[in-house]
Amino acid sequence: AKSRRGEAGAGLRPAPSCGAAVAAMAPSRAAAALRRSLLLLPTLLLALGSAGLSGYFGTKSRYEEVNPHLVRDPLSLGPSAASSRLPAACTPLQLRALLRHGTRYPTAGQIRRLGDLHSRFLRRRAAASSSSSSSSSSSSSSSSSAEAACPAVADLAAWQMWYEESLDGRLAPQGRRDMELLARRLAARFPALFAARRRLQLASSSKHRCLQSGAAFRKGLGPSLSLGTDEVEIEVNDSLMRFFDHCAKFVALVEENDAAMCQVDAFKEGPEMRKVLEKVASALCLPAEELNADLVQVAFLTCSYELAIKNVTSPWCSLFSEDDAKVLEYLNDLKQYWKRGYGYDINSRSSCILFQDIFQHLDKAVEESK
Ligand SMILES: *[C@@H]1O[C@H](CO)[C@@H](O)[C@H](O)[C@H]1NC(C)=O
Ligand SMILES: *[C@@H]1O[C@H](CO)[C@@H](O)[C@H](O)[C@H]1NC(C)=O
């Protein structure tokens, strides 16, 4: 696994750093274990050969994507359930859950860009059909010929823009289900943990979606706990759970440094994205100058959100081929690489406080059990 990871890392590594401002921060091969799992995920998805575009959604993939048995039975522990059972000599001592969140709505910025793209496209379509109906006696035949030229137009025109900016990254109903079912599967996997009333601790950030995820998770533990749900407190600690906001060096060198994402910006302007952009523009009957990489990316994200939140294949998906999806997956991977992963040493270092916490709690549980 180690050498495969090395290859994946090398394969993802883009051209040398493109800005003087970040040249001082040498890209590091070392990164935290959490980040490694991000790099392994696309390999797993490809290996499953999932149909259509859903294997290219990266961090917006459904949990079912990598655990297809959950589609049939959301409480299934999967094919490896029997073999992953604890050896008889092992006793589970504690559950310490460091919770992020389940499936969420797009952020306000993404929703704004989507609204922008959708209204541009509707305006363009209205202008095209009014100008062609004034020069032609039959408006229905002219609009159907426009739709033949831009096949995505009819379906997208019928699509309702239902996202509101107030949804801003909040937990979706599906996200509540994700977390509750995750907890129920965990409880089923380690019954001894609950029967013996071992110590349970849940930690969350103060983000609304994370608090709600924590509450749903706790609810999922409930039935097997036979405890009042209030008895397990959720510890809110942002310096622990949002370490990336609290690490001054990471904020200055990466988060607030425009030059840090220069490889991402270069890829957005590069030939691969250009090709996807021109294809999408022509499918939407928009001039390519009216689009940019961010708008194309938000259209692709909408395809992933509609599947994750509503379990539907949205007409936005029809704008993209599998090859386009690979380009957009790469764009997202590139951003994660430079912002969260191996790109800069401080990315992984900023998470040390969380890893220290994890290991300290493990040590403490072992110590107290002696
Ligand atoms: C948050 O977690 C950090 C790291 O474990 C710890 O030092 C700090 O005391 C915690 N803060 C609160 C308010 O619990
Ligand atoms: C999602 O949609 C598929 C196919 O349309 C359906 O078979 C499945 O039951 C749906 N899943 C949920 C959780 O509604």
Keywords:
370 residues; mainly alpha; 2 domains; 3-stranded parallel β-sheet; 3 strands; 59% helix; globular; disordered N terminus; binds 2-acetamido-2-deoxy-beta-D-glucopyranose
What topology emerges from the helices and strands here?
Elements: H1 2-12, H2 20-23, H3 33-48, H4 63-66, H5 69-72, E1 94-98, H6 108-135, H7 139-149, H8 153-158, H9 173-189, H10 191-195, E2 199-204, H11 208-225, E3 234-236, H12 238-241, H13 243-246, H14 248-255, H15 262-269, H16 271-283, H17 293-310, H18 322-339, H19 345-349, H20 352-369
The structure holds 2-acetamido-2-deoxy-beta-D-glucopyranose (2 copies).
Would you mind describing this structure in some detail?
With 370 residues, the chain is mainly alpha-helical. The protein has 2 domains: 1-30 and 109-125 and 143-163 and 254-350, no CATH class; 31-73 and 94-105 and 169-241, no CATH class. It contains 20 helices and 3 strands. It has helices spanning 2-12, 20-23, 33-48, 63-66, 69-72, 108-135, 139-149, 153-158, 173-189, 191-195, 208-225, 238-241, 243-246, 248-255, 262-269, 271-283, 293-310, 322-339, 345-349, 352-369, and strands at 94-98, 199-204, 234-236. A 3-stranded parallel β-sheet has the order 1-2-3, sandwiched between helices. Helix 11 (208-225) links the parallel strand 2 (199-204) and strand 3 (234-236). The longest helix is centred in the N-terminal third of the chain and has 28 residues, at 108-135. It is globular. Bound molecules: 2-acetamido-2-deoxy-beta-D-glucopyranose (NAG) (2 copies). The site of one 2-acetamido-2-deoxy-beta-D-glucopyranose has 5 residues, from helix 12 and helix 20.
